[in-house]
Amino acid sequence: MSRIANAFNNKKAFIAFLTAGDPDFESSLKNFKAVIEAGADLIEVGIPFSDPIAEGPVIQEADIRALSSGMTTDKVFQLVKELRKDYTIPIVFMTYANPVYHYGADKFFKNAAEAGADGIIIPDCPYEERSEFDETAAKYGIDFISMIAPTSEDRIKTIASQAKGFIYVVSSLGVTGVRSEITTDLDSIMKLIKEATDTPAAIGFGISTPEQAANMSKKADGVIVGSAMERIVAKYGKDAPKELSEYVKSMVDAI
Amino acid sequence: MENQANNGRFGEFGGQYIPETLMNEIHKLEAAYEHYKNDPEFVAELDKLNREYAGRPSLLYYAEKMTRDLGGAKIYLKREDLNHTGSHKINNVLGQVLLAKKMGKTRVIAETGAGQHGVATATAAALMDMECEIFMGEEDTIRQSLNVYRMNLLGAKVHAVKTGTKVLKDAVNEAMREWTSRVDDTLYVLGSVMGPHPFPTIVRDFQSVISKESRAQILEKEGKLPDVVIACVGGGSNAIGSFYEYIKDEGVKLIGCEAAGLGVDNPKNAATMANGSMGIFHGMKSLFCQDEYGQIAPVYSISAGLDYPGIGPEHAYLASIGRAQYVPITDEEAVNAFEYLSRTEGIIPAIESSHAVAHVMKIAPEMPKDSIIICTISGRGDKDVAAIARYRGVNISD
User: In angstroms, rounded to a whole number, what is the distance separating the alpha carbons of residues B172 and B190?
Assistant: First the structure.
């Protein structure tokens, strides 16, 4: 069983996102370790991008802090290598098409695999353009994760039936960021996904509280949290590991 | 020659690199456009708007004094500055807002750099009873405060974008983010031949009225085609509109003038063709100014309308096959041309268009007297007067 599949094996997965290098390499490494130790089932490692069009203000600012600290794609690979010394947790990159494309897709996925990554999420690479990356990623054993949105409708079956790793279900319209309530009919979306595939599906965008996590985990195989985590990093700086740890524990307990 | 978008591609350039949330909407737009572009009623309505509202056809003006002064090629100016709202942007927005209306949308959003596209969109929205919100980099709202007020006057809400470098690319980011949050009733009226397919094709088609007219006008005036067609390039909408009907005429040289800011070797420039490399950004595969890790570079130009780190995919394609040529023009050269055309012909061009005029000034003297240049004056320069005065060390209030 792959590391990603293992994260969903007989349990609901708590998936934690942090931007790599926020606020700097060493602090970021400590933050990831705290999140893993606290019981996250899968981590999403954000490779910062100058213009993250799918992100709300919280993650945009995280990307700016990371890039200002001198974070680069090569340093993100280094960070994952450091984590791999101690942990077998599945690790999925989250970034945009250009950092992968401009680095050279073949070189990117080769280095990503060597560092120990299991998958990648590229929000500005939809189903129609996946051939840009998915075969190269597969060549190195990296799962190209598909996204399904509230507007996907007739596209759900096609996307789900070809999905690898897990499916990222976008809970709401708009960009990433904490939301007080999620109004999308996720049950209908999940039903269509389950009819098309056995690949696990996790819900992300807008989830921040244990109550929301508990509610979403009833609908899906996992829950993805990003902006709420980054708010903690932004607020607590060097003290973030302790706060992140408590937060992750509360979320893991809730689902 | 294959220059029609094929699955949204111009050669290897173009594509649809956007979030899943927008994909169904983009397909709906594609289908609606394919239908309406051949719908006689839509075509007639747009033609009427172009003629009776925008003031088309725009003049093809023989710049006799400039021709005499430069002493070479005959110079014709395609006067897009005379259109309603003062630039070529109206050609595209009348088409897109009419299309939005046909699609049942009630709200349009748009990005703007210099404010010309924002003003044009706000104008079309006022005319066609659409709600309108414009995203403009905070820096540009300061550089072009007059246009912000114009948009407000036209009933549009202007959002000053405070993220990133606070200029045009950030305004595009924010408009795309806004579109993902509200797709049902909203069309993103993209202002240039960029972004995901079908935008580069839609905008090109609506702007190609420029070359449709100029080709007929020059044949009538001179009985032959021009030797050179010149236009400024940011994203590239007035340039593609100026070039399009001549692409098949292999003898007509097509030249795009991009913003070199303080110089192509100075970090403060926006010369994508000179300094850019292949990338995927803002929905398209094209050329972008970026660093070795694919982080989009902050760019600079005195012209807010050319201050963009990428270029439309069809231009990247035309350059790759050698059909069009792209040259860098510095701030200083553009300001000199701005002043030159004002004094010589009594025409104050937009600082964007002044980049094209600057190149005419370079090449016309070297060309034979029986040769012809058509230069597109994409907009009028009233909006730039205060900034140019500041550039020359004169402080006047807008």
Answer: 9
Give the pLDDT confidence of A155-206 residue by residue, as tens digits: 999 999 999 999 999 999 999 998 888 889 999 999 999 999 999 999 999 9
Alpha-carbon torsion, ordered B62, B64, B65, B69, to 10 deg: 110
| pTM exceeds cut of 0.80 | yes
Q: What is the CATH number of the domain that holds A166?
A: 3.20.20.70
Q: Note whether residue A113 is domain-resident.
A: yes
Share of chain B above pLDDT 90, in %: 92
In single-letter form, the type of residue at position B137 comes to: G
pLDDT in tens, B336-359: 999 999 999 999 999 999 999 999
Structural domain of A124: 3-248
Contacts of A37 (CB under 8 A, 6+ apart): A245
B58 is catalytic: no
For A175, which of B170, B180, B288 is closest by C-beta distance? B180
Residue of A nearest to B184 (CA): A151
Chain B nearest C-alpha distance from A106 (Å)? 14
Catalytic choice (B78, B89, B169, B285): B89
Residue B4 pLDDT: 47
Q: How many CB pairs under 8 A join A and B?
A: 119
Helices (H), chain A: 3-7, 25-37, 57-68, 73-84, 97-103, 105-115, 134-139, 156-161, 186-196, 210-219, 227-236, 240-254
In-domain check, residue A254:
no
Most A CBs within 10 A among B295, B299, B308, hence the mutation to make, goes to B295
CB B177 to CB A53 under 8 A? yes
Whether B365 shows a pLDDT value over 90: the answer reads: yes
Question: Does the pLDDT value for residue B398 go beyond 60?
Answer: no
Domain count, chain A: 1
Cα–Cα distance measured from residue A98 to residue A111, given in angstroms and rounded to the nearest whole number = 16
Task: Read off the pLDDT of residues A79-112 as tens digits, 9 standing for 90 and up.
Answer: 999 999 999 999 999 999 999 999 999 999 999 9
Tell whether ipTM is more than 0.90: yes
Query: Cβ contact (<8 Å) for A124 and B283?
Result: yes
Catalytic site residue B111?
A: yes
Mean pLDDT of B94-120: 96
Q: B21, A60: Cβ pair inside 8 Å? A: no
Q: Do A173 and B173 touch (CB under 8 A)?
A: no
Residue A231 domain flag:
yes
Q: Does an H or E element contain B275, and which?
A: helix B272-275
Q: What percent of chain A clears pLDDT 70, i.e. is strictly above it?
A: 100
- CB < 8 Å to A125, chain B: 17, 280
Per-residue confidence (pLDDT) for residue B6, from 0 to 100 = 59
If residue B243 lies in a helix (H) or strand (E), which one and from where to where? helix B237-243
DSSP-based three-state secondary structure for B49: helix
Interchain contact B6–A (C-beta under 8 A)? no
Does residue A253 lie within any of the structural domains? no
Is residue B222 among the annotated active site residues? Answer: no
Q: Is B6 exposed, middle or buried (0-12, 13-18, 19+ CB in 10 A)?
A: exposed
Query: Is 60 exceeded by the pLDDT of residue B2?
Result: no
Residues in chain A within 8 Å Cβ distance of B288: 98
> CB distance A129–B281 less than 8 Å?
no
